[in-house]
Amino acid sequence: MSMAIVEVFLGAFLTVLLEKLASGELLKFLHRVGIDAQLKKWRKTLLMIDAVLTDAENKQTANRAVKLWLNDLEDLAYDLEDLVDELNTEASLRKIRENKGSTSKVKKLIPTCCTNLSHSNFMFERGITSKLKEISSRLEALSEQIKMLNLVETVRGRLYERLPTTSLVVESEVYGREEDKEKIIEILFDVESNDNSISVIPIVGMGGVGKTTLVQLVYNDERLKDKFDLKAWACVSDDFNAVRVTKAILEAVSSGGRCDSENFDKLQVELKENLSNKKFLVVLDDIWNENYGDWDILRRPFLAGKPGSKIIITTRQEGVAKVMSKIPAYHLNLLSEADALSLLAQHAFGSKTFDACPGLIEIGKSMVRRCKYLPLAVKALGGLLRMAVGPKEWEEVLKSEIWMAEEKSEILPVLKLSYFYLPPQLKRCFAYCALFPKDYEFEKFHLVHFWMAEGLVQESKKDMLIEEVGSHYFNELLARSFFQKSSANASRFVMHDLFNDLAMSVAGDKCLRMDDKLKENLPRTISEKVRHLSFMRHEYETYHRFNILDKVQKLRTFLPLSVETYYSPDSEGFLSHKILHHLLPKLSCLRVLSLNGYSIYDLPDSIGDLRHLRYLGLAQTLLKWLPESVSTLIKLQVLILRGCRNLTKLPTSMENLINLRHLDIASTPELHEMPQGISQLASLRTLTKMTASKTNGMRLKDLGNLSFLQGDISIEELQNVANVQDAMDANLSDKPSLNEIRLAWSEDYDDSRNKFFELELLNALKPHENLSTLEIKYFGGESFSNWIGDSAFFKLAKISFNFCKNCTALPPLGQLPLLRDLSICGIDKVQVIGAEFYGNRGHGELPFPSLISLTFEDMSNWEEWHGIEGVIKLPLLCELKIKGCSKLVRVPDLLLPSLRELRATECNEVVLNHMKNLESLAKIKLKKIFGLTSVIKAFVQFPFTLEGFVVDGCDDLVTLWPSDNSIRNLVNLRKVRVRSCSQLLSLQEIDALPGLRILKIEDCDALELLPDKMTCLEWLEISMCPSLKMMMMLQDCCTSLIVLGIGHWLNLNLTNLLGSGHSYQSLTELDLWFCDGLESFPHGGLPTPNLRAIRIYNCQHLKSLPERMDLLSSFSELSAYNCASLMELFPQENIPPILSWLGVMRCGKLKPLGEWGLHKLTSLNYFAFGGCPELISFTNNRDEEHCVLPPSLSDLTLNDLPNLETLSKGFQNLTSLQILSIIECPKLEALPAEDQLEKLSRLEIRDCPLLKKRCLKNKGDYWPIIADIPLVEIDDGYIYNPCP
Hints:
Elements (H helix, E strand, L loop, with lengths): L2 H19 L2 H10 L2 H16 L1 H8 L3 H37 L5 H4 L9 H7 L2 H21 L29 H13 L8 E6 L6 H9 L10 E8 L4 H12 L10 H12 L4 E8 L4 H8 L10 E6 L2 H7 L5 E2 L5 H13 L11 H10 L4 H11 L4 H10 L11 H10 L3 H9 L9 E2 H10 L12 H14 L4 E2 L6 E3 L2 H11 L3 E4 L17 E5 L3 E2 L1 H4 L10 E5 L12 E2 L1 H7 L8 E3 L20 E3 L20 E3 L21 E3 L21 E2 L1 E3 L19 E6 L7 H7 L7 E7 L10 H10 L8 E5 L20 E5 L18 E5 L6 E2 L19 E5 L6 E2 L5 E3 L5 E7 L7 E3 L5 E8 H5 L1 E2 L6 E8 L4 H4 L9 E5 L22 E5 L18 E5 L16 E5 L19 E5 L6 H5 L10 E5 L19 E5 L19 E5 L19 E5 L20 E5 L24 E5 L19 E5 L10 H4 L4 E5 L2 H7 L7 H4 L4 E4 ...
Parallel strand pairs: 1-4, 1-5, 2-3, 3-4, 9-10, 10-12, 11-13, 12-14, 14-15, 15-16, 16-17, 17-18, 19-20, 20-21, 21-22, 22-23, 23-24, 24-26, 25-27, 26-29, 28-30, 29-31, 30-32, 31-33, 33-34, 34-35, 35-36, 36-37, 37-38, 38-39, 39-40, 40-41, 41-42, 42-43, 43-44, 44-45, 45-46, 46-47
Antiparallel strand pairs: 6-8, 7-8, 47-48
């Protein structure tokens, strides 16, 4: 790791630590316990050490002792910060006791050391005395070494000097910037000054993206020669020197040449004279300074120039662009793959292409992908490859990290400058991001919460909330290109790979990122100094994966990362009981603990011992309650319980969590009551759910105490509110930052509900006018409140009304100018929607001018929809859903020019008849449309822009489209699915669809005719069409077909279907189910050389599988279930070479398992076998040491083996086994050996009474062995579920 970066990182760390040691509140407490003098002494010593850090950095390369000194200092700084935090926690606990009094119930939850002010008890019980001595000794030793190492006080200097940029460029060696160049020149020509002010054109991009190169191209373009009288270029760089920049421009524009004066006033006057009444172009390259005052002084001579003069600036920072120009910045993006390849070729062997070395092009593609198409990285790599000859040496470079080494490359030094120029408070924030793997997408406020928890963000002295400070830090890093917006998800961000490398370099051995790319299971690479751990979530987390943490006792961060989000993991996860109950409680320094998405039923009480904890993530776990000890985590700032669908209660003493700022309990349907103490949490900013209690819990009026709530909140069980005053006291109208509100009553409309009272309650719950989202559910009033639809709430963008069954009319929502998403569901008593819905609008103004998505659902009595003079125009509507509106028969003309997706279910064809101007419609899904006989006739103007079409359950449908040539206009239609249309006779017309790629037909009883041929089809599925007279011939799409699925086809003949003499090169998947007429596959094997999977289910007369499967080099998956006549699995023992998935169930005529030759399947990972009453043992000829299964197996399922008695000793050879499922094996009484069981990730036992008895929790003899397997299921119940 580069110690140059360590110095800056450590300097930022010490700056924050010194501020903490100077805290007035802390010093008061330390004075009371008698150790304030000790910490003051420490602070003095640290100030002395801080002063010599730069000198230490300069000497560490040549002096190993200095390098070790810096490492020891950083480690001590972490330990000292932990101790300071512990002392702060102690001070807070005592303050709670003093404020609440000794009789408070809080006393029961606070550790005994805090209920007794005995200083000696405190120092002894928490081990403070020993920690003080240890830190004092280490600090004193480091201080003494300053003289021994000859370290002296210096001012922190620059990391290195770079050559200044110039205007010269070799244009023939630049690739991929032609379009950018033209856009900048266009801006130069188009932007004209209307006064004497100059036009400044900012170009922004990350380091190394090619900003300078782009401006060089523009600067030297021939078209600019006659455009400007004078041109000048100045490299500003990070060391902003107005004298130097002014002199450089003056020398370029004056006839006198070199200027030796250092008098800034004289230089400015002379430059002004030279620019006076001249039209000029000046480039200021690589600007970092955001000080407007400096820029204001520098620009004064430029004001003398002619209107039309231009200044182009390049910068990495958006803030610089905003300070220097009112013109929006031009953001420069990365190269395309083709351009990056050309650039690599140019610098690797002086050519524009790989034509002379075609064998290197694929390696070259991998290399530019590794460089993430960053020009500087590609150029540097190309320079390294100049000495590499041939594919072998290129491969060596590709697989090594040498091209990233500082001494060999420009990449890290260039980015180091970006890091060096960061303010101290941002340096640690950026270093923390080393926890994110490359290409990992993260969300802004999740990262801000982590920073807060780690103490990297402090409250501002300028009345900024800590979240606002963190948001500012994030925006700064984004503006400086350390972060980039994700191209896949607008709400997320990523780091460029090279910035990710920089973060790893900065963090050094303090951050450990466990993922497969970093070869996570190598404990010898793990430093005991690790403070932060992240890892990519596995479905099953074994203790073995984390046993390295036994020696990493000072860990602060335990952060699993999902491919999706922190709150919504992509799949369910299972955590070894030993990790949760034995490993994590030992990590007493934890500040961030995330267990989001794991199937956890309970937390250990020892969670309360994690005194430093600030962030606790338990989203989407299976917890029913939290232990009361959580209430002692007084440093906790963020508690995430979103999606805990079993959660029934929170700790009773929530008021102890005095620092809690964010409590996310959204989507917790079983949580019906909340502790009243939540209302005492003055710091609370986020409360995503509040249930109104009718007993002793939190009441609606208690929301009035939480003045700073922001974001979203769901206020539920409002039927429990007995007094309108409670709603008024909640004071929602005085919470301007609460912009998303959901109001919900009970779904039970019983006699206790009073519709007049509920309307009064809704009136009193009027929110602040900043509201952007409103949802009302199960409201029992007859009409909505007047504030709903009021034009004062003009910021409303999303509204949802659900099952407000008594309402007879809708509010005037059409007058809300920014409303984008409207959903109205289950309002049974509305019969007519008319003018009242559109509200008051100005002359010529359309209702719903911004509406993008509109849903009407389950409106069982809605009969009439009136427009404005018979018409409704929704110019921006993209998505329309109408479902369960069976009585709607009167509809206005709906003009929908932007509509992209239409979903209509259980409604009349007349609704479709009135949709017009459908020139943008791409997707249609029609289900149970009454009276629909022809799809094309249902629309007055049929949308020929269609890309996807689904029709389902339309019993009156006879034809999709007429057989005329109009269907040929559907040139974009790629997907058609037809399901459960009982009167549909023919689909022959679809052969005219020129772009059709996917065709799925299911459950059409009367369907007789299909097209004779299809040309470009990629996916074909046909099932349950018993009246089909003939099957299409597929040879016309033999080159395009990828997936073929045939089901419930009695007379299926694959030879006829596929034709003869054709090779289906693209076909990768073949699925056949319930095809009882199928007896065999085509003779000689399938004409599918690239087939990957065959799945066959319930084909009762099939006797053998395809021949010559050994020739299928890509074949990896085979399933044969319930094929009673199947006699051969691999005819002539032609075994597929890379088969990895094999499932065989209830195929009773197959040879004995021992004769299959499974040991030859060296790539087999998954094997499912069952339905074989004859099987007694997994041995061959009762050889106990032999197992017929291959050792490569990682996942094994045994199902319906009624006579299986033993698994054989040979099972010990299954060294890769991780998942074992044993189902319906009643005679089996023994599992594999102990050492194998301990390695399992999942064990499932179902309907195996002998095994079940031996596996019972805390009772069976297998229990001690299987207790720490992440997932053990016995008869469909998880063993740690307290309420199975």
